[in-house]
Amino acid sequence: MRHMVLIATAWMMGTGAAAANFTQCISQLRADAARSGISQNVIAQALAINQPDDKVLRLSKVQPEFKTPIWDYMGFLVDEERVRDGQAMMRKYDRVLRAAEQRFGVDRHVIAAVWGVETNFGAEAGDNFLPHALATLVCEGGRREAFWRGELMAALKLVDQGDLTLDELYGSWAGAFGQTQFIPTTYQRLAVDFDGDGRRDLVKSVPDALGSTANYLKRAGWRTGQPWMVEVAVPSGYKGPTGRNNRASLATWAGRGVTRADGRPLSGGGEAGLLLPAGPNGPGFLVYPNFNAIYAYNQAESYALAISHLADRMAGLPALRTPWPTDDPGLSRAQRLQLQKLLAARGYDVGVPDGKIGAQSRAAIAAAEQAMGMPATGRAGSKIYRALGGR
């Protein structure tokens, strides 16, 4: 019993020390904000914090449970629903998108595709209060403290200078927010007042968000009137050069046996790099310097591929002509939702079906796979979908 009391006492002392350290850190952040010229009113409201945000800490430390196959990633982000929604939003905001295209020189389909992938056209912008999330990462995150501190101060300055109100500072756990998910320092540098109301509001103003996204891509090196990506096919067993920055002329690629996936000859000037995200037996892509401007937005080739392909689809181009080299393709959002409903109908706990495959849904999928004599992968693929009756 005495041993247990000592353990409990030590735990309470540790907890108390951690709380004291957090309180001290918040006090220091308030002082830093004041030295940065931020008003006491904004500081008092934004940093009225007495404990860390546990959800943010949990998300910041989670390691991916498995690597998402490219066909799952693309199937989720570039499905028919998002293409249709994107085309509808492009019609609705046609004047704004054309104005942004004219002013910044960035193709309007790419601007809209960023919007669609980042927040599903504004529908999913995040629900974390940024001052709390960023203060938690500064005081408890354990790494990149200076980065998070800079983002927190930039967020508070956006409120202090009148661009935003505190109740608009909601976004991802890592500080990205608004219709097209800018982090606060990027917002300070590159956001524009595109609707002319005197404020740079990327949260509620779609014109400001789209104009700012175009400005970002322009600053990232976008070349007006130039392509960003074309689907290609490579010879069987291709072992030649690849990589988005390993560029060559189209004539050189043609000499290596690379052809357009639609059968038309490669034509045009400029240089491009070859991406084979699933190897030589899957879809191939020649990507141009504009692809790198898209890549700069999130620094992941799969992300830039999704943006590029969604832009093409919204412009009226067809789905990928070469299938992914798998017998278990990824699912669209509608199919993921149906999969959850099929699992729930069989008694598996998936929570509230929403089309988003998290840990609870993966556990249910693995249990269903095991019960049906399939390898327990926990992955939302076509095999388990069909096995449960999905169509």
Verbal overview:
There is one protein chain. The protein is α+β, with helices and mostly antiparallel strands and 391 residues long. It has 3 domains: 2-62 and 126-177, Helicase, Ruva Protein, domain 3 (Orthogonal Bundle), CATH 1.10.8; 68-122 and 220-326, Lysozyme; 333-387, no CATH class. Helices cover 52% and strands 7% of the residues. The protein has 17 helices and 7 strands. The protein has helices at 2-35, 40-46, 54-61, 70-77, 80-92, 94-104, 108-119, 130-140, 145-160, 184-190, 206-219, 250-255, 289-298, 301-314, 333-345, 359-371, 382-387; strands spanning 128-129, 170-171, 229-233, 243-249, 259-260, 271-275, 284-287. A 5-stranded antiparallel β-sheet has the order 4-6-7-3-5. The protein is globular, with a radius of gyration of 24 Å. It starts with a helix and ends with a helix. The model is unreliable at 4-16 (pLDDT under 50).
Q: Could you provide a short overview of the structure?
A:
The protein is 52% helix and 7% strand. The chain is α+β, with helices and mostly antiparallel strands and 391 residues long.
Strand-helix topology:
Elements (H helix, E strand, L loop, with lengths): L1 H34 L4 H7 L7 H8 L8 H8 L2 H13 L1 H11 L3 H12 L8 E2 H11 L4 H16 L9 E2 L12 H7 L15 H14 L9 E5 L9 E7 H6 L3 E2 L10 E5 L8 E4 L1 H10 L2 H14 L18 H13 L13 H13 L10 H6 L4
Antiparallel strand pairs: 1-2, 3-5, 3-7, 4-6, 6-7
Unreliable runs, pLDDT <50, ≥5 residues? 4-16
What form results from the Cα inertia axes? globular
Question: Total helix count?
Answer: 17
Tally of distinct domains? 3
CATH architecture of the largest domain: Orthogonal Bundle
Q: What topology, given as strand order, has the largest sheet?
A: 4-6-7-3-5
Through-space gap between termini = 60 Å
What string gives the helices and strands in order? Answer: HHHHHHHEHHEHHEEHEEEHHHHH
- Work out the helicity level: 40-55%
**Average of per-residue pLDDT values:** 92
Could you give a short account of the major beta sheet? 5 strands, antiparallel
Oligomeric category: single chain
